[in-house]
Design brief:
Number of helices: 8
CATH architecture of the largest domain: 3-Layer(aba) Sandwich
CATH class of the largest domain: Alpha Beta
Catalytic activity: 1-(5-phospho-beta-D-ribosyl)-ATP + diphosphate = 5-phospho-alpha-D-ribose 1-diphosphate + ATP
Main location: cytoplasm
EC number: 2.4.2.17
Radius of gyration: 25 Å
Organism: Pontibacter lucknowensis
Structural class: alpha/beta
Number of strands: 15
Shape: flat
Bound molecules: adenosine-5'-triphosphate, zinc ion
GO molecular function, one term: ATP phosphoribosyltransferase activity
Number of domains: 3
Helix content: 25-40%
Distance between the termini: 27 Å
CATH topology of the largest domain: D-Maltodextrin-Binding Protein, domain 2
Strand content: 25-35%
Low-confidence stretches: none
Oligomer: single chain
CATH superfamily of the largest domain: Periplasmic binding protein-like II
């Protein structure tokens, strides 16, 4: 049995549970429960505050966990990281009241900065050679300048709308973050094997998220040219259509590449192009 710690309720919770479900792992959730056991995979889920997750994994109370890199690195636990999961993307940024003159980081020399991430902020300031007073507060950082507690703040930003609504302007990006899978370094063989199985499934899910299945019709004399445009997992599958001289080509494309090749496919004579999502992808 492997124990996974995830955030009980917050910005990581939903996507963490979604990833586990997409891996085909079933469990019953209840907002009142502190832990649940999967009904079809040797996994137990603990629901914790995100800040506590790295510590619990380091101590072995949980074997693995999902947490933001911002919290992991702030707590000096980056050695636990196994891999980035691609969700809960955000950044830690410095912001100043929007009317304040600000040209570069040297403007923060000697200023008061409020943050919940003193370590990440300190290393950024050290790197830039700036000395400032860091006020560590645990929440509502964005109101610190308006109540006179600080000249600037360093806080998590995703769209930036919270900053704007508090009359602040983002001026420096201190740290880029996303959710990361972490693991205790001393897992026994049984637990390591379960983790490997879980990672295999996570990779299949992640690969599928970027990949799209593409189907198109093409005249037979254009198959070679179109196949060149479709890198695919291997070469495209080619099936004859009922209409003489035409075939259907099936392949896999990366979503990012798709928009680039679509015009070329049409120019090469492709018709009836369908692009459909892939649920799992094993290579
Ligand atoms: P807890 O009660 O568990 O301590 P919290 O209030 O500290 O929760 P949340 O606000 O739920 O934490 O954020 C959890 C993590 O989600 C953050 O550490 C960060 O990695 C990520 N995150 C925070 N804000 C955003 C955002 N606006 N968009 C995307 N991800 C975010
Ligand atoms: Zn927290």
């Amino acid at each position: 049995m492997l124990r996974l710690a995830i955030q009980k309720s917050g910005r990581l919770s939903e996507d963490s549970l979604k990833l586990i479900r997409e891996c085909g792992i079933s469990f019953i959730t209840s907002s009142l429960k502190l832990k649940t056991e999967s009904t079809n995979f040797p996994l137990e889920i603990l629901y914790l505050r995100d800040d506590d997750i790295p510590g619990y994994v380091a101590d072995g109370v949980a074997d693995i966990g999902i947490v933001g890199e911002n919290v992991l690195v702030e707590e000096g636990m980056q050695h636990l990281a196994v891999e980035q999961l691609g969700f809960s993307k955000c950044r830690l940024s410095l912001a100043v009241p929007k009317g304040d003159p600000y040209e570069d980081i040297s403007d923060l020399q000697g200023k008061n900065i409020a943050t919940s991430y003193p370590n990440l902020l300190q290393s950024y300031l050290d790197e830039k050679g700036v000395q400032a007073h860091i006020h560590t507060i645990s929440g509502s950082v964005e109101i610190a300048p308006s109540i006179g507690l600080a000249d600037a703040i360093c806080d998590i930003v995703s769209s930036g709308s919270t900053l704007i609504s508090n009359g602040l302007r983002e001026v420096e990006r201190v740290f880029k973050s996303q959710a990361v899978l972490i693991a205790n370094g001393g897992l026994n063989a049984e637990k390591q094997e379960i983790l490997n199985k879980l990672l295999f499934r996570i990779h299949a899910v992640q690969r599928a998220q970027k990949a799209k299945y593409i189907l198109l019709n093409a005249p037979n004399d254009k198959i070679a040219e179109i196949s060149e445009l479709l890198p695919g997992a291997k070469s495209p599958s080619i099936l004859p259509l009922a209409e003489e001289g035409w075939s259907s080509l099936h392949s896999v494309v990366n979503e990012d590449d798709f928009w680039e090749i679509i015009e070329k496919l049409k120019d090469a004579g492709a018709q009836g192009i369908l692009v459909v999502p892939i649920e799992k992808m094993i290579v």
